[in-house]
């Protein structure tokens, strides 16, 4: 695996596919370009998912995030694109991408998109006291 | 698009209308006038919505917020007016406006109003562990 | 309207009665007397409600809060009394009073009481991702 | 009422028994002894309840908390014992005791136990926007 | 019980098995090795459970956590392994293990896995105002 | 000592007058009246001092703070008056009164006044790494 | 005194001119216009001073802050202008104006300017342990 | 060394007496009795010192803190007593005891006392940018 | 002025050169490249200065920060280079650059460098109570 | 450079030796063993220094921190040993090591040791308003 920015997401087999478990990943170092002005945008990306057969490999996720550094992208489009890429690579039971952008024009914008595998149902939540 | 305060809200086509995704916007720089005393009021405005065919354009939202600067408006009325304007411009699946006003007479007031497109149902929420 | 403490709560017509919207009010400056010892008690009062035909006028709410300054009142009783007074004045769809008292005998006490208009149902909550 | 530690919990009549209202009490000054080593343990105790006919008197609750000062008690057992004592004294509609213990062996332990009066149902929760 | 790292988890009888109560445990001092690079990883471990017949003994839990100090383990695998070990030792009604790992490659990862005893149902949650 | 508001400050002999030591006291429950409008003002009072022969008695300080409840007083004047009263009662080596008032007209005001015993010098401060 | 924005600052006699005491004032509701773009700027203003013969009147300070609402002003210039106006009105022993501006172009700017009365010396600071 | 509360403070030789270095110790679990009412008091104790020939042994410090559990002691006196005991045991170059007591009568009290070895001078502080 | 990244720093005349005043600027959106690995580095930059004849223009500072986006630079070198560039452009009385880098290898690094104009002395600091 | 734990500290030439600048480094992932019990200890290490001819290389510092993983060491001794090693490797103008240990026996301990190059003087600190 090179250490170049890359759109290819590596995966590895889920070590416990018989159980629905959850992965939360926070990526505070994300930058892309504004497609209108060409100026840098900054964001924190959150990835939350329930893996099925494959998990995202950590270093490859980092290189994937890096791959947006010189890419122009609207807030709404880039969040959906990330979700599409990650779903294509891992075919998860559930996945959510949250992109928390830095202030522009005095306004803070966060975009959230999620994917559910057809037929998959979360187990009813146990809420402890 | 001018850089004058404006009640006209620009929109652009939703890049992913086949998916219910969420936009959270926070506007910490908002001021209007008290209709009783004419004195300035200050607030932070929150906009949360699920777009249908159109998204709110960021710069135009900023000019829209600016348009209240010289307008007298009661807390309860202005929050509902904003929601009406934004719903008219974007016809969203779901939208919520929250206006968190600065203290007056020793009392902090927040007003929250929401709109739901008839027939639209949110997908059952997945609550991860 | 005088600027004397007053048990009379002024109201004004709800500017948008066709929509269920929410008002949150926080009153950090509240003091009354302990009915057992006569010593001052301090609290922060929270008022959350969905108006029906009438909204509470802000200045009158402040004078109402002031009216407890020389009144002896147990924690449990005063919270219910406030709710009764505010419900009588505004006949809201929903109302909740929370009284967060300052420490006494090393113990922090908060009392919460709510009222629901018979037959009124909250719209099913939309929980965004 | 003496100012000695005491297992006896005083109560007073609920001033508004026709309404389900809530009491939250936080007791940050609690200490008992570890039954294995005899060394002091420290905790913060939280009491949350919906009274039925009787409320817990504040000063008596303080003396009750004091009564554990020289008592050896395991984390799991003491939390359940407190709940049993408080339920016996007040026969509440609902009650929860939370004991947040200070670190031991590098591990922080919190124990939560609750009681529900048979047949009592909480009103469906109103979640405001 | 020795003070050596140990995979053996001691338990003791649940003092109140007729009641569903909850234990929350936080272990901020956890370290293992990255199986790819051999370098140290650090995490905070959270254990939340409803005991059935047995509770985890605190000191033994500490020695168990210590036992990972020289063990290579992937984030996803180690969290599931811990849950398996703890379930085997205590056969709880419900158990959840959360492992919050320290940043690697600029990414923070948290893994959450839970176990439910077949047939066990949590009591419907009482949400107080 | 009565439990009535009182301008009389009780004192007791400094237990260690041969050493310059420091007392910090924070009084978050303070209220007086605005002399212009008669409306309540709220503040947190801080007292910091190096005692000489006498220390302020805690309960008497509480009753002294209570004595301002029905007194009209400007922010600047009341802070200096408190300092004068406390200096008269204890003749300290050093004393500072800080009054942090609640917002009025959108402005937060804090007033700080201090007294130094003639000829007294603080020991040069040891600032640890 | 009118309730119109006004550049005139009212003062009143210092109630304790024989003592150097300190006033801290925080004004979180301040807005002016950017002289280059005409767009609104927002800031929090802090005023710290040691009065000599005159103190700033609170309501007049609020109207003075309001007077900048329609005024174009660079960050550096407006802070110095405020200090000049306040010094002219009160001739203090010491005064400092801090203007903490809201983010522009991704950069947060704070400007601080101070004035010292010629010949005035602060008392050597007493730093308590 | 026993595990009984004990007024005897164990020490060990300073491993680096040729260098002035600093020890900060925080003891959040401290309780004693109020000498007037016999009721429990709680505090957090801070110990900061520059050792000379001897350092305080950690476990012995814990047992020393425990020794106050059944002792009546005024805030001002107990802080000075601790400092005296710790100075006697370790004869440090510099030592400071801070006792932050829990609220009583609505007032939070902190007492700070320090000792300096005659002739000892702290090195002039290096304040980094 | 273009909206391209640029090493040229625009300045404007100090509006109040006869007074030593202070500018604090915080730039949370900064990224450059690691010269060893070519991978992105992220930092928050702080600029604090006392202007002499010239002030840094805000938009030009933003473009200057952008100019490092594709530049390889060691933490220690880049901080000193920024200070050199900013001093050359503005010749300030005093300037400090602080670069707070994001974690690498589990270690957080901050670099601070400052410049003082020969012969310039800060006024003795007034520390208010 | 290997990726094994190592006591050898790599350095590189200071890129700007003609200027006194400051490096702050925070290492939250540190663990060693208690020399008395053999059990793990955890700490956060802070390194602050003014380099002279050499700077500490980041990766080598990480491997150095790793080298304590299997080493028994008292709090006071290990902090001084680190300072000695780092001073030997870099011969800095000024260096400070702070070791903030995790709670043991209910007590939090922090040790701070510093080194000054003979004859070196810090520039008088500029404290901005
Ligand atoms: Ca809990
Ligand atoms: Ca709200
Ligand atoms: Ca989580
Ligand atoms: Ca509550
Ligand atoms: Ca969100
Ligand atoms: Ca505690
Ligand atoms: Ca208050
Ligand atoms: Ca320290
Ligand atoms: Ca604001
Ligand atoms: Ca202190
Ligand atoms: Ca405590
Ligand atoms: Ca710093
Ligand atoms: Ca960032
Ligand atoms: Ca202050
Ligand atoms: Ca840690
Ligand atoms: Ca500042």
TrEMBL record, chains A, B, C, D, E, F, G, H, I, J:
It is an enzyme of class 1 (oxidoreductase). GO terms for cellular component: cytoplasm. Pathway: tRNA modification; tRNA-queuosine biosynthesis. Pfam families: QueF. InterPro entries: GTP-CH-I_C/QueF, NADPH_dep_7-cyano-7-deazaG_red, QueF, QueF_type1. The keyword Cytoplasm applies. One of its GO terms (biological process) is tRNA queuosine(34) biosynthetic process. GO terms for molecular function: preQ1 synthase activity. Substrate binds at residues 56-58, 75-76. SUPFAM superfamilies: Tetrahydrobiopterin biosynthesis enzymes-like. It is found in: Cytoplasm. The active site is at residues 34, 41. NCBIfam families: QueF-II (TIGR03139). This is NADPH-dependent 7-cyano-7-deazaguanine reductase. The lineage of its organism: Bacteria, Pseudomonadati, Pseudomonadota, Gammaproteobacteria, Chromatiales. The gene is queF.
């Amino acid at each position: 695996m090179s250490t170049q920015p890359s759109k290819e997401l590596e995966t590895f087999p889920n070590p416990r596919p018989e159980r629905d478990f959850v992965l939360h990943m926070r990526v505070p170092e994300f930058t892309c370009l504004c497609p209108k002005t060409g100026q840098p945008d900054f964001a924190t990306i959150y990835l939350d998912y329930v893996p099925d057969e494959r998990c995202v490999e950590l270093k490859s996720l980092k290189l994937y995030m890096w791959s947006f550094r010189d890419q122009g992208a609207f807030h709404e489009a880039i969040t959906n694109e990330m979700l599409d890429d990650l779903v294509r690579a891992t075919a998860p039971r559930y996945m959510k991408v949250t992109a928390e952008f830095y202030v522009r024009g005095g306004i803070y914008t966060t975009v959230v998109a999620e994917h559910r595998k057809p037929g998959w149902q979360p187990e009813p939540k146990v809420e402890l006291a």
